[in-house]
Amino acid sequence: MEIRGVQIDDTFAEAFGMRGARIIITAKNEKWARESANKLTGFATSVIACKCEAAVERELAPSETPDGRPGISVLLFTMDSDSLPKRVIERIGQTVLTCPTTACFDGLPDSPDRLAIGKPLRTFGDGFQASKMIDGQRYWRVPVMEGEFLIQETFGKAKGVGGGNFLILAESAEVALDAAEAAVESMAGMPGVILPFPGGIVRSGSKVGAKKYKGMIASTNDAFAPTLRVITRTALPEGVNSVLEIVLDGLDFRSIATAMRAGIDAACIAGVRSITAGNYGGKLGPYHFHLRRIMSGDLDDAPKAASAGPAAQP
Amino acid sequence: MSDRITLTLRAPLDRALDADAIAADRLAALSAQEIAALPLWDGRNAVALGDVFSVSGERAQTVVLEGDLAKLRGVGSMMSGGTLEIRGSIGSAVGARMLGGAIAVQGSAGDDAGSAMSGGSLVIAGNAGDRAGGALQGASKGMTGGHIVVRGSVGREAGARMRRGTLCCASAGAGAGLGMIAGNVIVAGAIGDEPGAGNKRGSIVALGGVRVPQTYAYACTYRPPHLSLMLLFLRRRFAFPVDDAHLHGLYKRYSGDLAEIGKGEILEWQAT
What we know:
Structural class of chain A: alpha+beta
Oligomer: heterodimer
Largest sheet of chain A: 14 strands, mixed
Shape of chain B: elongated
Order of helices and strands of chain B: EEHHEEHEEEEEEEEEEEHHEE
Strand content of chain A: 25-35%
Order of helices and strands of chain A: EEEHHEEHEEHEEEEEHEEEEHEEH
Number of helices of chain A: 7
Number of domains of chain A: 2
Largest sheet of chain B: 13 strands, mixed
């Protein structure tokens, strides 16, 4: 399969089950909502070292938020249910509670699985906090020096998918970055999906473990590192001098597949040789995003089957 | 099965009747004959509902009452579901102790509307009498949940001893929120004297100005973040008349009643 002269490899991205929450931050204006969201999602690129993966999902107009103010929707994922409330509580506590003018709401109101988030955070109020029931939901008014911080008592929990990905193999670093930026721009604001890495782009795709250093959880993906082409078992076709990766987490398979389709299509620009994806041979992750199926418009979860082709490891 | 049950008053009432048999959930499973046989009470004497009302429809979730019903007491008492539509004015204790469902009164209501209710909604297009959302006689708590929306005025002691829930109205008589334990009284216009006397943790929101009792003390002027959420909900759900200026405006916060634990508040909107 080719798109505008760019080969789409017959392979798949292998992804894992995660647990996620959607956090709605509102503020006096978009600036302060963004400020808080940027802090909340800071240092949240990979569960490997950050304990969670988080990013801005999209901006919300006042008509879309519970309190009629400008807002930002954030998705945050962890590998297990137990750590999800811990990460959400510590991040909201340090980055939303502290931020001028913000309030914080659940973005998954239909989820039957509820996490106590505002409930523990209310104790910052040292007994001066007060609750209000509004439309069947409890909210906590926590007195702070600025005035009051408002937070919903419980947040919904969702089963998510983490580690959707594709790799852009380009003739130069400039082209790879242009293509990756175009891909990120095309996926920006898509519902149910985040790109947790800086600017949505990863330059240091990794493999599991290491060849030289025992105990490493991950190390450089040497098969896709152009400087190592002649001294390792390379996966790079001729003419490829730079590779960038896009990693996606989402609330469901279809959201990721939909975003991947848009992103891959946008990345097919002159100077890009091929698009491939990272997997572990299909043995570890239950979610397989087959690039050619996705680009053919098949966006639903398919029966698992390992594909042939080079196996990059995200 | 019908889409609604309609009860039409056969003749004007010359004396008060207790009509707590009339509630949407209690009528929902009954045939027209069974509905007509339900008792209304004239003091200690039972009167068949069918002698007072003509009944049309059966086994429906919506009940419509028609006629001059101002002498009918306790309609919708302990109602837990369904819809009760009252086309006219209604007597005292409408929706008292109701648990759920919706009651809409197209006219005005007498005293004790929604007293001790714990859920559902009671919307009164006209005025309501004294003690709306308050406590039953001798009880320690008024309403403990649900919403009372009065588009006109409420009488004295609205929301007295309320524990939870929201009462909102265009204007309120003296003693609104008397002895509130918690919950919300929201008044779009004028409020009578001594609002929130004995208030423990309740919120009285005055969108049209208020004479603050001496047992309250000014704390600050700020934008209460929960109010925009609450007022938006009331506007969306009940078409309560709230301007955008109210949603995000400044409010003076008075803490009180300081003769009590002082965790209650009066929030007075500041026109800019």
